[in-house]
Amino acid sequence: MNRTLYSALFYLGLPLVAIRLWLRARKAPAYARRIGERFSWGLPVMVPGGIWVHSVSVGESIAAAPMIRALLQRYPQLPITVTCMTPTGSERIQALFASEPRVQHCYLPYDLPCAAKRFLDRVRPCLAVIMETELWPNHIHQCARRGIPVALANARLSERSARGYGRFPKLTRPMLAEMSLFAVQTEAEAERFRQLGARADTVEVSGSIKFDLTIDPQLLEDANALRRQWQATERPVWIAASTHEGEDEVVLAAHRRLLESYPDALLILVPRHPERFDSVQQLCEREGFATVRRSRAQPVSAQASVLLGDTMGELLFLYALADSAFVGGSLVPNGGHNLLEPAALAKPVLSGPHLFNFLEIAAQLRSAGALQEVEDAESLALAVQRLFELPRDAQRMAEAGLKVMRTNQGALQRLLDGLGRLID
Predict the structure, then answer these.
(1) Which residue among 23, 97, 222, 353 is least enclosed by CB atoms within 10 Å?
(2) CB 150 within 8 A of CB 180
């Protein structure tokens, strides 16, 4: 399949796209708003020129934030247009850069030739930066036609994704050949990009910018203050973050086991997707757990056993409130989520076995003794209980995680140097 056939199939599939939007809007009404932006109609007023950064959703937006702030500082004359694909990503972008007038935002239009042309005619960037692996053939081709360099930042490519791209060489190879920079996390991923058609001189192993996460000391002070307000400085607290459907039941079963030995234990449960907040609360209450919701500023009394983290943009703060952290998306075959956020906060890290989106990071943390993998409710409960009962072991895991973070820092600077060459 080449790009012409891909585009034709995309146009023919628009009724299915509309149905998918409608179905998603039933759970998350925000998907029914700003639909015109997804076709490059009704875009907000923008200052043309500058840098275009695309981050598909919340995780990529958070990862991109330090890079965007550094670009704002390095190029004070340039606006930065940040696009995403999801309402939650849009909310996060607007919250992160609410006080920065040079950051402008809209949804990325669908990868249709006409929509890509209209978008680039409006934005007219001097550089396009795509986060991780969000590759769209028509957007990239339209950039190449205009002489706009395209960089893939913090790039990652699993074996499974590489096999998927490899099934369509007539589409993939020309697309990758039109790109100017692949700032890749590992050498294995760099080789996958080369094999798929990226020009060797455009592929650089820069590492993961997620290692360059810095923690505001005020965040830690605020978390300690809230623990004192809850009268929970001695209370055992653990967090299960970014959980997916099918994981919450396992986490709650583990928490029930913990309560047998630690009746005052508190679980902070943070579903990955906002549309699941209500259903997870109902699950908690149906299972008999006294549950309070973070968004309602309800007091976390000694009687509460679950705090539902149903706010956006507070995940680091919620991690800081806990003594140990389980990172979701890993007990189900979703590939896992960012293990480095709790590690940067000096928390012992637990996860399930499905970590194919973070194989290299997981391997480093596991080798250092900073990560323990669990399989089910029983092993999760035992792991959390061990960390409650053996604070020295918990401290060793926390220190090992911080050491891994420090050892791997510098990727952001290498990425900025590569982007600087394209701009200059």
Answers:
(1) 23
(2) yes
Given a cut of 90, is residue 357 above it in pLDDT? no
* pLDDT over 90, % of the chain: 91
Residues 387 and 413 in one domain: no
Query: What element of type H or E holds 353?
Result: none
Task: Give me the pLDDT at residue 58, please.
Answer: 86
Note the pLDDT of residue 95: 92
The structural domain count of the chain equals 2
CB-CB contact of 331 with 352 (8 Å): yes
For residue 82, give every residue at least 6 positions away whose Cβ sits within 8 Å of its Cβ, in sequence order, or none. 52, 53, 54, 55, 61, 64, 68, 93, 97, 103, 104, 105
> 155: domain CATH number?
3.40.50.11720
Mean pLDDT over each residue of the chain, to the nearest integer: 95
3-state helix, strand, coil in the chain (%, to 5): 50, 15, 35
The pTM (predicted TM-score) of the whole model is 0.88
- Per-residue CA distances from 297 to 7, 230, 270, 275, 280 (Å): 48, 12, 15, 19, 18
Average pLDDT over residues 288-305: 94
Block residue for tokens 């009687």: 303
Rounded distance, CA 226 to CA 11, Å?
Answer: 52
Rg (CA), the chain: 22
Q: Smallest Cα–Cα separation from 344: which of 395, 304, 402, 305?
A: 402
pLDDT-based confidence at residue 388 (cuts at 50, 70, 90)? very high
Compute the C-alpha angle 383/314/100, nearest 5°: 145
Distance, CA of 218 to chain centre: 23
Closest CA to 142 of 169, 114, 168, 107: 114
In a domain, 21, yes or no: no
Q: Both 153 and 254 in a single domain? A: no
Element (H, E) at 238: strand 237-243
Give the residue numbers marked as catalytic.
60
Q: What is the DSSP letter of 300?
A: -
Domain that holds residue 88: 27-208+409-423
Note whether 189 and 225 are same-domain residues: no
Interacting residues of 129 by C-beta distance below 8 A, sequence separation 6+: 51, 52, 53, 54, 67, 150, 151, 153, 419
Same domain, 247 and 377: yes
Examine the domain organization and report whether 286 and 363 are in the same domain: yes
Side-by-side strand order, sheet with 203-205: 103-107, 80-84, 51-54, 127-131, 150-155, 181-184, 203-205
Residues 169-218: tens digit of each pLDDT: 999 999 999 999 999 999 999 999 999 999 999 999 999 999 999 899 99
